[in-house]
Amino acid sequence: MPVATSTPKTLPAGIYCPTLTFFQPTAEQDLDLETHARHMEFLAKSGIQGVVLQGSTGEAVALDRDERKQMIRVAKETFSRIGNSGTIIAGTVGAQSTRENIILCKDAAEVGADFALILPPSYFPAMMTPDAIQSFYEDVADASPIPVIIYSYPGVCSGINMDTDLILRLAVHPNIAGIKHTDHDVGKIARESAALKGLQTSFTVLGGATDYLLGGLSVGGKGAITGMANVAPRACAKAFELFQAGKTTEALEIAGEVSKAEWGMGKGGIMGTKYAVQKCNNYPESAALGRKPLPLVSAATKSHVDAAFESITAFERQLEKQGWVGKSLVAN
C-alpha cells in the first residue's frame, strides 16, 4: 500500500550543500557527531537553502542505517536550534534495490528529512533500461513518505546516463520533486526547464556543481547542490542571488572565484574535498580523514588545495564578518 505524501512538496530553488561525514580518529572510526553538529551550525547560519546528508560527498556507501539516521537527526536539531527551517535532504546512495531505497526513505522521514536524493541502481547496469529505471523511481516514490529527488551521476553509476525523455516522464509523478544533474549537462538543464513549462508539475532542476551555476540558471535551472558550499556557502548563495536580481557582472565575478576553487577541489577527489573543508573551516585534523579503506590525503593534494582556496576562503570570511547571509535564512 503506497504511503507517499498526499500533498506534493516543492523543492525550493537555491544553493544546497552536500555535506561531509566526519569520523573519529580511532580504529573503529565511529561518527564524529561533534564536528558534524559544528559544520551544520556553520551552514545553518550562512543562509543557503539546505543541506544534503549522506550523498556521494558524504561517503554514504560506507555508512550503516543507524549512522545515517543519527546524521539526519543531528542536522535537523542543529538547524532548528539556529532557527533555520531550511531543507534537509537525505541521500540513499549505495542502496541497490527498490526495497532498500524505500526503507532508507522511511528512515529519513522518521528523523526529520524533507526529501530523499536517490541514485539509480547500477550494479547490473545492462539490466537498467530506461523502462527499468522509470519503474524503480516510480515504485520508490509511490512508497516513500517524503518526496524523491532524482540523482543523475553517471560517474558513480557504471556510466548510466538518464536522458531527457526519461526525466520528463518521471517529472510528472506527484512524489518526485526534482533532479540533481551531477552529469554536469547544461543542455539537459535547458531542455528539461523548457519542457517543464508545458507540464503540470513543480519539478525543480538543479545543477550538481557551481562551475556552471550561472550557465544553468540562465537556461532555466533553479540552483545547485554543490560541494563548494562546504567551504564558501555565502559566496555560492551570493552569486546565485545576484544573478537572480539581474546583477550579472557582480554575479560573474564571484562565480569565477568559486569556480577556480572548485577546480582545485575536484583535482583532489573526495580526500581533497575533505582536506579543504577541514583546513578552511579550522576543524580538527581528523575531519580530513575518510573512512577506511580511503587513503590519507597526500602532501601534493594539500599544497594544491591550499593555493586554490586562499582567495575564496578570504572572501567567505569577509562576508561572514560583514554579517551577510542568504535570503533563504532571512526568509526563515
UniProtKB/TrEMBL annotation:
InterPro entries: Aldolase_TIM, DapA-like, Schiff_base-form_aldolases_CS. It holds the Pfam family DHDPS. Keywords: Lyase, Schiff base. One of its GO terms (molecular function) is 4-hydroxy-tetrahydrodipicolinate synthase activity. Belongs to the DapA family. This is 4-hydroxy-2-oxoglutarate aldolase, mitochondrial. CDD domains: DHDPS-like. The active site is at residues 151, 180. The keyword Lyase applies. Pyruvate binds at residues 57, 225. The keyword Lyase applies. Gene3D superfamilies: Aldolase class I.
